[in-house]
Design goal:
This protein is mostly helical. The protein has one domain. It has 3 helices and no strands. Helix 1 runs antiparallel to helix 3. The chain is elongated and about 50 Å long.
Length: 54
């Protein structure tokens, strides 16, 4: 039982981290994004890779 709860908690934490990362990338000032060579339109792809490692 605890493993199910633990997996659900981990999934919720990863989902929250994913959405937080997407939000931070999308709100990043353009000059900062350009300095970091980040296209803000790829925020979902970048966040997914950062959180889930795929």
């Amino acid at each position: 039982m605890t493993s199910i709860i633990s997996r659900m908690r981990d999934a919720a934490q990863k989902r929250a981290a994913y959405y937080r990362t997407v939000d931070e990338i999308e709100r990043m000032p353009l000059d900062v994004a350009l300095d970091l060579n980040i296209y803000r339109g790829d925020a979902h792809k970048i966040a997914y890779k950062a959180v889930y490692g795929a």
